[in-house]
Write a structure and sequence with these properties.
Layout lengths: L2 H41 L6 H22 L15 H36 L11 H5 L1 H31 L1
Helix pairs in contact: 1-2, 2-5, 3-5
Length: 171
């Protein structure tokens, strides 16, 4: 087994783990908010941290799941133009947009790391019920963007390899 296929398997496992974590976080938020609503309206004893943690979970879910969704080709796409061009041109357009996506995500990763590290150094706390370090809340942004960038690059590479095979089939 080659190193690249091993790294692909490891990265695919990471994508699945992040997606599962996002799913578990969603279930936790759902259950905890339901419990909080019952406690608030029937017993007048709300759980103070539920709203805050649910807000953070809503930040974590898309950043954890985005790479997996891209891997499954399940993102929303506007394909009105793609449907009117040849499969080879479709692959080329998708390859270019994947490279642009990877570049954008790498830029967001860089700035996300910068801001997260700045918050860490300054010890910025959240200003809500739970006083936790803000960098713990936002660290998912650079992590998720990096994973997303890598998956965009992998997608561009897969599409690059397919451009030759699509051209051979048409000839």
């Amino acid at each position: 087994m080659s190193l690249s296929s091993t790294l692909d398997r490891i990265f695919d496992g990471l994508l699945k783990a992040f997606a599962w974590l996002a799913g578990f976080m969603m279930m936790f938020a759902l259950v905890s908010v339901c419990i909080d609503v019952v406690l608030r309206y029937f017993f007048n004893k709300p759980i103070g941290w539920v709203l805050q943690i649910s807000e953070y979970i809503l930040l974590y879910i898309p950043f954890l799941a985005a790479g997996y969704v891209l891997r499954q080709e399940s993102h929303i796409r506007i394909d009105i133009i793609l449907n009117r061009v040849s499969p080879r041109l479709q692959n080329r357009i998708n390859m270019v947009t994947s490279l642009v996506g990877a570049l954008v995500m790498l830029i967001l990763t860089y700035y996300g790391i910068y801001v997260t590290y700045d918050f860490y150094q300054r010890g910025v706390p959240t200003l809500k019920y739970l006083k936790i370090p803000e960098f713990l809340v936002i660290m998912v942004i650079p992590a998720g963007c990096f994973v997303f960038a890598v998956e965009f690059a992998r997608r561009a590479l897969r599409l690059y390899r397919e451009v030759g095979t699509v051209g051979e089939k048409q000839n």
